[in-house]
Every structure is written in structure tokens, then in C-alpha cells.
């Protein structure tokens, strides 16, 4: 409406300023008024569109502000949750490290206790099952070849070891001072192209026998026997048939025994 008022005002001003025109007609003024009205309508439509657009922009800005506020709240919530999770993780790590340290300490204590207990049990076992040191080793003395007859005892006069003193270099017999399982060993060297027959005897009974014939060179052989021997039992070496035996420092005829178990 203010456009109409403006138009009337302009018409009055024009009438007051300009002299009356003989050529201008009423039709010209109507056309001018019509054009002004059309411009007013166009301007009003444009203004309405601008107003609506402005309203939409304001509404969009409000929604953006609202979403931004929600996003800020969500970010704050996430930060709070992150701090809570970090605190829980730190607490779990501290607790786990503490528990692990305690577990390692307990394990170390248990291992030390087990080692100590095992050592004590081992000491007891050694005390209860200790095998006395009974051992002897003797050999021939004279270098050269020697003849033996059947059932002749072989004496080994040179004593190398005689723990307990129960081997006799005079008789060649070993007398057991401790009951148990013994191992006995004899090494002998048959003379060139001659036979040698020896046996290990326990309480008059042969434990092991061996016979060998010498060749072009003198070669030594050995035999072993195991026996459960009682206290006072004797074990010795005996010739089971006529024999020819050789001895020197490098080819030794010898006799040995060892207590291996009670």
C-alpha cells in the first residue's frame, strides 16, 4: 500500500511542478500507474521470497546449533568414557602387575622350599643307602711266562688298591667284610700258542670261566662276574686246566673287585 501512497504523492508533485501537458492524456497516467502496481507486486513477491528464505536459513542455523550442541555433549560423553576406560585400564594394569609380582614371589618361595626339601631328602637317602667303599685291584709281579696246574689258585702279589684291606696278596683270596652285590674282573694273557683256562670262584663254586689260546703275538683277554656275597665269603681266581700265562708291565695279568650295591 505504501507504493500506492508514494505514487499518488509523485503524481501530485508532478502536477505541481510540471506545467500541464496538452499532449499527455489520462490513458498515459493509467499506464504508468499500472506499471507501478506491477512493480509493487513483483517487489512484494521478491520480498516474500527473501523473507521465507531468511526464515529457512534461520531455521537451518538453529538446527545446526542444536546438532552442534548435541555433538558437543556426545564428545563430552566420549571423553568421559575414555577417561573412565583409561582409569580402569590403569587400575587393571597395576593390579595385574601386583598380582604377577606376588605370584612370582610365591613361586620363587615354593621352588626354594622344594629345592631345600629335595636336598634334605637326598641327604637322608644318601645316609640310609650309602654304599661302603670296598674295592681292590692286584696283579702279577714277575715278568715272563708261568705254568699252572689244574685247580691251582692264582695269586696276585702286587696290590694296587685294597680299600678295607680284605684282599690277601698271600693267598689271592678276597674276603667280604660287607654283604652286597660285587663285580669281579680278571685279565690274563695266554702265552704264545698255549692255552690258559681261568675261573672266578665264589665259596668254592665257579662264577665265570674262560679259556683262550695264544697266537703269534701275546694278546690279553678278560672276563667279569657278578655275585651276591655274604659277610665272610671268599672269592678268588683258580686254574681250571693246565695253563701257560704271560705277564709284563704292558700285558698285565690282574684281578679286581668292587662292591656296587648293598
TrEMBL record:
Residues 47-95 form a coiled coil. Keywords: Coiled coil, Secreted, Signal. It is found in: Secreted. Its main location: secreted. InterPro entries: C1q_dom, Cerebellin_Synaptic_Org, Tumour_necrosis_fac-like_dom. Residues 129-262 form the C1q domain. The keyword Signal applies. Residues 1-16 form the signal peptide. It comes from the Eukaryota. GO terms for cellular component: extracellular region. The keyword Transmembrane does not apply. PANTHER family: C1Q DOMAIN-CONTAINING PROTEIN, CEREBELLIN-RELATED. This is C1q domain-containing protein. It comes from Dreissena polymorpha (Zebra mussel). The lineage of its organism: Eukaryota, Metazoa, Spiralia, Lophotrochozoa, Mollusca.
